[in-house]
Automatic annotation (TrEMBL), chain A:
Record GO terms (molecular function): ATP binding; hydrolase activity; transferase activity
Lineage: Bacteria, Pseudomonadati, Pseudomonadota, Gammaproteobacteria, Pseudomonadales
Naturally occurring in which organism (per UniProt): Marinobacter confluentis
Protein name: Biotin-dependent carboxyltransferase
Residues in Carboxyltransferase domain copies: 30-311
Keyword Transferase set for record: yes
Gene3D superfamilies: Cyclophilin-like
UniProt keyword terms in alphabetical order: ATP-binding, Hydrolase, Nucleotide-binding, Transferase
InterPro entries, alphabetized: CT_A_B (IPR003778), Cyclophilin-like_dom_sf (IPR029000), PxpC (IPR052708)
Automatic annotation (TrEMBL), chain B:
Upper lineage: Bacteria, Pseudomonadati, Pseudomonadota, Gammaproteobacteria, Pseudomonadales
Protein name: 5-oxoprolinase subunit PxpB
All copies of domain Carboxyltransferase, residue ranges: 7-209
Enzyme class: hydrolase
Classification via SMART domains: AHS1
Molecular function terms, GO-annotated: 5-oxoprolinase (ATP-hydrolyzing) activity; ATP binding
Length: 323, 243
């Protein structure tokens, strides 16, 4: 009976938006199905790492707080990402580290103090039936999540765990290294790899793009984040629609750039400045409206080196303690 | 416009290349795009993450930890150097989409007729007598952009999109036609409805259509539409968004 559902948490209060996210849905873009996955890959990956899970293990993405969970059994968890004033039995819950939760105890998220999204990983991982190869929850597409139909968490939900207990206390650090814990309130510079249409923007717009201070707009969600600032002008106003990769920064005719994130539409037809690196896209997803950001061009080699360095922190091998 | 020699490899992050094969929309593009997609699957193997074909381009996403962008670029250049159009897929799979054309489920029939100076019957005839190709999928899962429409039917999107377009709605905009696979907002002109499931979780691969497929719309009456499982609920006139 290895497949019998094992309940880890019960949802006492759901909050505005709590979603199950694995690494994302891949190999489906050609049928119009988007990527999904964690908006902040950096914090999501650390949550799994601290909980002793492999890369890709499903985690809860908690947006703007409000979630309250009750443990149905003794659990080991790790919460990373935004400071949503999380509490454990009414005491502040330490972030970016492994925490033991006893059966019957509660974990709750309050109002955001810094950042937007927190990630809660449980040792062994949450479990749901994959749809098109992934449990990544995309509400708009009605795909993934615990119910398979893209439903966000609701009060009364029972959150199932993987029956294969993956936790090995010696396999993981108990706490993330200090440089890996971002200050989400600090002024932010985003690394952008210039793309094919970069030279079609006017000289002044290119100057503005990389020298102006941009403000994160109210229109910011898992599909994309709009930046407001000087209007950018491009000699190309519209293009034949084509595939859009993660972090692409498109500029519609109003001149206000939009960084396209995990739940973006799969094709689109606006010229692009280029692509944010994965780590910069992660950081942008933690910015509240009004946050000031700057764009900085990054070279290919530097971006790849940074990515490899980041990925080197994590474990991809099949866990040996499952045998 | 970005002038340059085609085909062209354009960087799309550290894990992707945009392969730009053409600069204009043409049915003949599809056989080339399909051939390149298949070649990429073979050449990249496990390192391939995603392929997004569209009207004139193929976006290739790979795992940068398995294959460097330099290697990917070389591999793509080699594929392009010996690329030949796919004769087997030049035709594509043919779908007959049974459609009930009626103002109740196609509330923009009258608008399209007026804009094209045709009767509603002539609009239906013009839409259903042509065979279309699927140029791209996107907007929502299984949403297939098909074309090209008879030029007499070319009409703009609605000024105000509907907040809720019923599943199976057959629609036109610009030179293209499509079927809404699921209930979504939408700004295309609705002219009918089909019982066909464009996106079905019980189907292997989920999507009825793929890029390169051929599509015909076949006019059927309400009884046939309903017997095939179609929902005849009229489009509510109050579902237009006010923003």
């Amino acid at each position: 009976m290895a497949n019998r559902a094992m309940v880890g948490f019960r949802v006492m209060r759901a909050g505005p938006l709590a979603l199950l996210q694995d690494a994302g849905r891949f190999g489906t873009r050609h049928i119009g199905v988007t990527q999904g996955g964690p908006a902040d890959m950096h914090a999501w990956a650390w949550a799994n790492q601290l909980a002793g899970n492999q890369w890709g293990t499903p985690v809860l993405e908690v947006t703007l707080g409000g979630l309250e969970l009750e443990a149905e059994r003794d659990l080991t968890i790790a919460v990373t990402g935004a400071d949503l004033t999380a509490r454990h039995q009414n005491q502040p819950l330490p972030l970016w580290r492994r925490v033991r939760i006893a059966a019957g105890e509660r974990v709750s998220f309050g109002a955001p103090a810094a950042g937007v999204r927190a990630y809660l990983a449980v040792s062994g991982g949450f479990k749901a039936e994959p749809v098109l190869g992934s449990v990544a929850c995309v509400v708009r597409e009605q795909l993934g999540g615990f119910d398979g139909h893209g439903r966000k968490l609701e009060e009364g939900d029972q959150l199932t765990l993987s029956s294969a207990e993956g936790f090995s206390p010696h396999a993981a650090e108990a706490e993330a290294p200090v440089p890996e814990k971002p200050d989400y309130s600090a002024p932010l510079t985003l690394d952008l790899l210039p793309g094919a249409q970069i030279a079609d923007f006017t000289g002044k717009s290119l100057f503005d793009a990389f020298n102006a201070s941009w403000q994160v707009d109210q229109r910011a969600d898992r599909m994309g984040v709009r930046l407001s600032g000087p209007a950018l002008r491009c000699n190309i106003t519209s293009m034949v629609s084509e595939g859009i990769s993660m972090g692409a920064v498109q500029v519609p005719p109003d001149g206000q750039p939009i960084a396209l994130l995990n739940d973006r539409q799969t094709i689109g037809g606006y010229p692009r400045l280029g692509n944010l690196t994965a780590l910069s896209a992660s950081r942008l997803s933690q910015c509240q409206p009004g946050h000031q950001v700057r764009l900085r061009p990054i070279g290919f080699e530097a971006a790849l080196r940074e990515h490899r360095q980041f990925m080197g922190n994590f474990s991809f091998l099949p866990s040996s303690n499952n045998i | 416009m970005n002038v340059g020699v085609l085909p062209r490899l354009e960087p799309a992050g550290i894990d992707g290349y945009m392969v730009r094969l053409f600069d204009t929309i043409d049915e003949d593009n599809l056989a080339w795009l399909s051939a390149l997609s298949r070649d990429c699957e073979t050449a990249f193997g496990q390192a391939l993450v995603d392929l997004v074909p569209s009207y004139t381009t193929l976006l290739v996403i790979f795992d940068p930890l398995q294959i460097s962008a330099w290697q990917a670029r070389i591999r793509l250049s080699e594929l392009l150097a010996r690329l030949t159009p796919d004769p087997a897929l030049a035709g594509g799979k043919l779908h007959d989409v049974a459609t009930w054309y009626h103002p109740e489920v196609g509330p923009d029939l009258a608008r399209v007729a007026e804009l094209s100076s045709l009767t509603e019957e002539a609009v239906i005839k013009a839409h259903s007598e042509r065979e279309y190709r699927v140029f791209a999928l996107g907007f929502s899962p299984g949403f297939a952009f098909m074309g090209l429409l008879d030029s007499s039917l070319t009409c703009p999107r609605l000024d105000t999109p509907r907040s809720r377009v019923p599943r199976g709605s057959v629609a036109i905009a610009g030179q293209q036609t499509a079927v809404y696979p699921t209930v979504t907002p939408g700004g295309w002109n609705l002219i009918g409805r089909t019982a066909a499931r464009l996106f079905d979780r019980d189907r292997d691969g989920f999507s009825l259509m793929k890029v390169g497929d051929r599509v015909r719309f076949v006019a059927v009456d309400r009884n046939t539409f309903e017997s095939e499982g179609g929902d005849p609920t009229p489009v509510s006139p109050t579902t237009k968004e006010t923003r």
